[in-house]
Amino acid sequence: MRVDFYQLGDVPLEQVIASLAQKVLDSGARLLILAGEDASLARLDRMLWDQGRTSFLPHGLAGEGDDSRQPILLATSPDPVNGARNLLIADGEWRDSALSFHRAFYLFDTNTLQGARTAWRSLARREEAERHFWKRQDEKWVEDLAASTSRG
C-alpha cells in the first residue's frame, strides 16, 4: 500500500483536496475523504460543490443516503462503504485503518506536523507500506525523492 504525505505549508487544504479528488476521479477510482468532525466535513461538502470540470466534484456525506453509489464519500469513519480503495485523511490525524486501503493521501500542516512525523517513522517499520513525501515547489507539487522510500 502507498501513503502519500502532503505537507500543506501555505497551500489551502481545500485546494489540495479538490486537486487530489479530481485526479482520483479521472483515474476511474473512488475516494473516501476522512475527517474527525462533522463541521469539517460540512465545510468540505460545500467546497466540493464548486470544483471540477462540471463546476462540482460528485460526492456525498456518509449517512445521507446512497453512500455506496458516491464516487467521493465524506465520512468520519474509515469504512469505505462506497467501495473506495483510496483514502484521503483531511484532518491531519493518522489512522492505522488507512493501511487497509490501496492508497492513502495524508495531508498535514504545522499544527499536525508531529503526528505526521510519528506516522512516517511508524510506517518505516511496515514492509507493506510505501512512503512518498510531497512538497510544494514553484507552485507545483513535487515528490521529495530523498525522503520518499519504496520500503521501510
Descriptors:
single chain, 152 residues, Rossmann fold, 8-stranded mixed β-sheet, 8 strands
Structure description:
The structure is a single chain. The protein has 152 residues and is of the alpha/beta class. It is built from three helices and eight strands, in the order βαβαββββαββ. The protein has a single domain, classed as Rossmann fold. An eight-stranded mixed sheet has the order 3-4-2-5-6-1-7-8, sandwiched between helices. β7 and β8 form a beta hairpin. The model has no long low-confidence stretch (mean pLDDT 91).
Summarize the structure.
Helices cover 24% and strands 25% of the residues. The chain is an alpha/beta fold.
Topology:
Elements: E1 2-7, H1 13-26, E2 31-34, H2 38-48, E3 60-61, E4 72-75, E5 86-89, E6 103-108, H3 113-124, E7 130-137, E8 140-143
Parallel strand pairs: 1-6, 1-7, 2-4, 2-5, 3-4, 5-6
Antiparallel strand pairs: 7-8
Helix content: 10-25%
What's the helix count? 3
**What number is the mean pLDDT?**
91
CATH class term: Alpha Beta
Binned strand content: 25-35%
CATH superfamily: DNA polymerase III subunit chi
The ordered string of helix (H) and strand (E) elements is EHEHEEEEHEE
